[in-house]
């Protein structure tokens, strides 16, 4: 039996579902029951009937699944697959900021650790950050941890956004200069970028979208050629789902090492040995659940 067949057998036997982020390796994307962005994956995790969720992504995504479905087993096939941006703010640092601005409400990007979510009023993802910022009932907002997403949201509101100084090392490497060169090379291409990019890159974009937002946009667009300003894993999905269209990285390919750790063999072992189970303290689950459920009301 091939490893893909073994995975399918174990999945049936254990009533498991495989959720996969858009940046994962192509062969892992191919075995997904659901492939998506952070928001889509959180929504799936909240309403699956399966007993076990195998999460092919990074730690904060698997934690989000656990918080939304605490009675299910949530497995992260590589326990060291973290998100460096999520580790850029601690609960203590957020508490200190809240003391400094007691009247402010806290929006935390879903790319945070569970205890930071527990200290937040509401979470957001790249797909709904703009809406969450617009709709939150506060004139002053603490936004953690991504300074670029905070600056992007600030473009749409008169509220005061107090950003944390975090960033994504992958999107940070996309430079204005290389994007301009790519645009020169493909002048007829539409430029789609992720809101974790620097403001100077966002200024050049035709559309600023989450990863699944890029997938939907490319599918519906009449255009044939696209420059993609995000982690290179998404290009595999874009090409596979749009055989008549062309997709190029906006500059050199940028890779998230953490997203690429998970192999098919890791998924197989995760199912076989039920490893590595996400475990979180009950109090953290309860408080973080409130912030995540507040977020899930947004598209
Ligand atoms: P999306 O929610 O847009 O897929 O982004 C997740 C992420 O980690 C981006 O770096
Ligand atoms: Fe974290 Fe950036 Fe990797 Fe996304 S791409 S998981 S934000 S380091």
Can you describe what's shown?
With 299 residues, the protein is α/β, with parallel strands linked by helices. It has three domains: 3-81 and 259-279, NadA-like (Rossmann fold, 3-Layer(aba) Sandwich); 86-168 and 288-296, 3-Layer(aba) Sandwich (Rossmann fold); 174-249, NadA-like (Rossmann fold). 41% of the residues lie in helices and 16% in strands. The chain has 14 helices and twelve strands. It has helices at residues 3-14, 26-29, 38-47, 59-68, 91-100, 114-118, 129-135, 147-154, 176-185, 199-202, 211-220, 233-241, 264-273, 282-295, and strands at 16-21, 34-36, 52-56, 73-75, 105-109, 122-124, 140-144, 160-163, 190-193, 207-208, 225-229, 246-249. The strands form three sheets. The chain has a four-stranded parallel beta sheet, with helices on both faces. It has a four-stranded parallel beta sheet with strand order 6-5-7-8, with helices on both faces. The termini are far apart. 1,3-dihydroxyacetonephosphate (13P) is lined by residues 22, 37-38, 111, 125-126, 168, 196, 210-211.
Summarize the structure.
The chain has 299 residues and is of the alpha/beta class. The chain has helices spanning 3-14, 26-29, 38-47, 59-68, 91-100, 114-118, 129-135, 147-154, 176-185, 199-202, 211-220, 233-241, 264-273, 282-295, and strands at residues 16-21, 34-36, 52-56, 73-75, 105-109, 122-124, 140-144, 160-163, 190-193, 207-208, 225-229, 246-249. Helices cover 41% and strands 16% of the residues.
